[in-house]
Write a structure and sequence with these properties.
This protein is of the alpha/beta class and 578 residues long. It is 25% helix and 20% strand.
Length: 578
């Protein structure tokens, strides 16, 4: 091979065809291609030539997605079905569409070592994991999703690479940073010596997934650990490259950003990264505390009170520069005119379910009524809701951290997992530490596979189906306009949200997360109906079809009496006289 002026090696090869295997020889050692499109024998095996034009797409009429109106569904391909493949997942798409999901978010699929992994240890940046199917299997999944009217996001990891099968350093010492380090290992070199080819590699990778697999966007993992002290930031360039590859389709790029820097949503020309949305951990943490009553570990700074939920609905992030006691410093930046759809809210995601001793679903840690009430807030609130796979039918299956590594590395991963959970005092005891599931035990992975036939709660399935139908059909709620929402605290754990709409009538969501609330008299103006109108109960989480005790209108001639652990939606109906 011949080296060019930028340090890249190349050769013109003939008589190549799809399906051929190859490796690169570097200093008398053979390595897989770090840009391989497919690794049929895993991270250490030979690379395979793939012809991306060999798939006949059927989605010519698909125009892409935008954030407004989306309902996101996060899933892990390996545990979403018993088979754990792209093709098997296709069989569940119609059910997701009927439920009301609009945008599927797939956890990372870049080739990783072993038989199972969350995907955040990926090393084959361009190769879909061979255990899920070949590259055309991923294309079939995306094509089928578009046929069902569903968009597909891919979670990508641009802050580090996994330790096993990572051969980039064999080709050059400049891929990894000497200036920065992440909590998972060496950071990528986006701002050091010879960083330009590294930046180009990751921009090309983002464009590759969008262009060759027709994906509708990306979810960027842990953006706070994608270090770059230059301008424009590499994330901004990655977003621009992805959008250019999609044109004329529209795509969305969602970020995870633990410090909650809203500037990530700003346009590039304004100094931002140009993201379309950010995950909102604040909402989740408040919900977790309200559901469980526990403020241990990183839940320390959230109380789960009514005020927090009113503030989250109106402002998105709760911490916008205030001191965060858990970290001993300020957290977040000020939210101004960013739209509600740009904040992704959730009760569960892969991290938050797994960050319990046994990967317990949150509904197993709370009362049914409280869970129904906060599910209503999630699905009727103005921000973009996200469900974690199985949540929609009340799955009790755990989701645990799993990873299949060689023995020495596996032991280190297990020790690291136990050390992480020690931040929660109840998980730091000797007895609890012995019960932390071993990520490398095959049973840990198998226990996480969804079992729809035996693990469906009909009442929860009805709850989520009805709430999502209401979210779609109600013109006031569907606007997702946080500027049109006001809120009031009625007690420490009871509150109301009010949507004002002169055309369709106001909406009032009344939630009590703990005991009954006798609010008589009612010195709160948000409870007053519009002039010439009266409140009419439209929906209640206490309905028997959701296994509730029976719906009771909280508003009567006697005043406001709100049932405990309930959510009620009321609509302003104008009287005939008016």
């Amino acid at each position: 091979m011949t080296r060019d002026g930028r340090g890249a090696w190349h050769v013109d090869a003939t008589d190549l065809r799809a399906g051929m295997l190859y490796r690169y020889r570097v200093d008398d050692a053979l390595y897989p291609d770090p840009c391989s499109r497919f690794q049929p024998a895993g991270v250490h095996g030979a690379s395979m030539i793939v012809d991306p034009s060999g798939y006949a797409w059927r989605d010519a009429d698909w125009r892409g997605v935008s954030m407004h109106g989306q309902v996101v569904y996060e899933l892990h391909i390996g545990s979403f079905t018993a088979e754990g493949t792209f093709d098997a997942a296709i069989g569940e798409l119609e059910a997701l569409r009927e439920l009301g999901v609009t945008l599927i978010e797939i956890m990372p699929v870049a080739e990783f070592p072993g038989r199972c992994n969350w995907g955040y240890d990926g090393v084959g940046l361009f190769a879909p994991y061979h255990g899920y199917g070949d590259p055309h299997a991923l294309r079939r999944f995306v094509d089928a999703a578009h046929g069902a009217g569903l968009g597909v996001l891919l979670d990508v990891v641009y802050n580090h690479l996994g330790p096993d099968g990572n051969y980039l350093a064999a080709y050059s010492g400049d891929y990894f940073s000497t200036r920065h380090r992440t909590e998972w290992g060496d950071a990528l070199n986006f701002d050091g010596r010879d960083a330009a080819p590294v930046r180009d590699l990751f921009k090309r990778n983002a464009a590759y997934w969008i262009e060759e697999f027709h994906l509708d966007g990306l979810r960027l993992d842990a953006t706070q650990s994608i270090f770059d002290d230059t301008k424009p930031h590499i994330i901004a360039e990655i977003v621009q490259a992805a959008r250019a590859a999609a044109s004329p389709r529209s795509i969305v790029v969602v970020g995870e950003n633990e410090p909650q820097h809203v500037e990530a949503l700003w346009p590039v020309e304004r100094g931002g990264w140009g993201l379309d949305a950010l995950w909102n951990d604040d909402f989740h943490h408040s919900a977790h505390v309200a559901l469980t009553g526990r403020r241990d570990g990183y839940y320390h700074d959230h109380r789960g009170t009514a005020q927090e939920f009113v503030s989250a609905a109106r402002h998105g992030f709760l911490f916008q520069g205030q001191r965060y006691q858990w970290q001993g410093k300020s957290r977040g930046t000020v939210v101004t005119d960013e739209p509600a759809a740009s904040f992704v809210h959730f009760l569960e995601n892969h991290d938050q379910v797994a960050n319990t001793l046994k990967g317990a679903r949150v509904r197993t840690c709370t009362s049914p009524g409280r869970y129904r009430a906060l599910s209503a807030l999630l699905l009727l609130g103005p921000q973009t809701p996200m469900l974690f796979m199985g949540q929609e039918f009340g799955s009790m299956r755990p989701f645990r951290f799993f990873a299949d590594h060689e023995p020495k590395l596996a032991q280190k991963v297990y020790e690291g997992r136990r050390e992480f959970l020690r931040q929660f005092s109840s998980y730091a005891t000797e007895e609890a530490q012995r019960r932390v599931p071993d990520p490398g035990n095959p049973d840990t992975f198998v226990s996480c596979k969804l079992d729809r036939a035996n693990d469906t709660d009909a009442s929860i399935a009805a709850l989520y189906r009805d709430l999502l139908a209401l979210r779609r059909s109600d013109p006031v709620i569907a606007r997702q306009c946080r500027e049109a929402i006001d809120g009031a605290v009625l007690s420490e754990h009871a509150f109301v949200l009010r949507w004002r709409d002169t055309q369709h009538g106001d909406r009032l969501l009344v939630i009590a997360l703990r005991d009954d609330v006798d609010f008589r008299p009612a010195p709160e103006p948000l409870l007053a109906p519009p002039r010439g109108a009266a409140w009419s109960m439209r929906w209640s989480s206490d309905a028997p079809r959701y296994d509730g005790p029976g719906a009771v209108d909280p508003c009567s001639e006697e005043g406001w009496r709100i049932p405990g652990e309930s959510a009620t939606l009321l609509v302003a109906i104008r009287s005939v006289q008016a």
